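Homework-ish question, so no full write-ups if that breaks the rules, but can someone show me the predicted structure for this set?
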Amino acid sequence: MARPRSFDPDDVLEIARQVFWRKGFQATSLDEITAASGIAKPSLYAAFGDKNALFLKVLDRYHDGILGWAERTLAQPGPGREAIRQWLTGFIPYCSGERGQHGCLSINSATDGSLDQAEVRKSIERYNRRLEELLRARLRADRAEFRKGFDPDITAHTIMVVHAGLLALAHQRPDSKQVKAVIDQVMGLLA
Amino acid sequence: MARPRSFDPDDVLEIARQVFWRKGFQATSLDEITAASGIAKPSLYAAFGDKNALFLKVLDRYHDGILGWAERTLAQPGPGREAIRQWLTGFIPYCSGERGQHGCLSINSATDGSLDQAEVRKSIERYNRRLEELLRARLRADRAEFRKGFDPDITAHTIMVVHAGLLALAHQRPDSKQVKAVIDQVMGLLA
DNA sequence: TTCGTTATGTACTTGTAAGTACAGAATTGA
DNA sequence: TCAATTCTGTACTTACAAGTACATAACGAA
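A: Not a homework solution, just the prediction itself:
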């Protein structure tokens, strides 16, 4: 037929993710992505569209990755409390120390005023909604574990808030013990 | 002596804050600030230095404003629990609805990878440290209100996390009732 | 091998934003 | 009124990044 692509789009999205994550959308130039990936601009444009479209693909991929992991973790057997604790605990490496310094790509994007594009907002909203649904479903299913008057809907949202807060403060590189202590304390709400 | 300044620097910082808050540091051009303020670039440069320096002044001013309010609120007489609830409740207008859509300038800046300048980071760190100190001091002072085994240090940090999370998720314009419900639930940790 | 097709790389255009040179305006002190 | 000084506005330079034109390379099919 014709000349085949010389690169795997997924590899490029992975590299682009790293650059966007480190520097943010605005401050990342396509030249940096071409430098990091070795792919020239016309190929990037042909494969992904313009910078906005490329970023959106990166962000969607990022969301899908986290959602997949959340689905697996929150579906595990045993007490719902432990599933949720394990889900939160899984974020500790991304909320503390060196690795936490860039926080979460989704939250970084949500707080970036320059990304007011409707599609980015929609992607983030869908992601947050889906995550909260997973939490809520598990809390509802296992509500017998919890005290009387326990409200799974509000609790799911509170956990989302804590999760967002940990990742927002991750840029300060807190100690992982401190993050763990917060999680432990918040787990007290699941009494 | 010489020709006096034709504008009040504080007014300009206030206008610059609005623009930076809405669009973020990178995406804000000085031309937009000159348009919004009516002050030409050379005057801005003479008064504030370059774009980074201007932003830093804006951010410091923002931090000072919130810290001043926090000091007043958290120093009020009565139960510490109520002081803290009032402090958190005061953020509701900035965490919900239309007004919440731009979140918090400090958190937006903390999550902006392009703002890796050491001074911005330091300003944010100082702000967070000071805020947490205020909470911790009040929780320690009133620890008699709380249950046995209550840990004011961890609790202060948890409240910081919740506060950050509410302001990070503010960009989704949640309903103020939902924000209030989260605050109520978290106040349960101060039992 | 040759043709049609699609990818690639170089080098360009274009737009925009940061920062500044300079001439002239506004003020106070003499 | 003049002089010294500092501010202001216009218009510029410079840098950089987004996006693209175009010639060429690499493939499969016939």
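Now go work out the reasoning yourself. Hint: Chain A has a mean pLDDT of 97.
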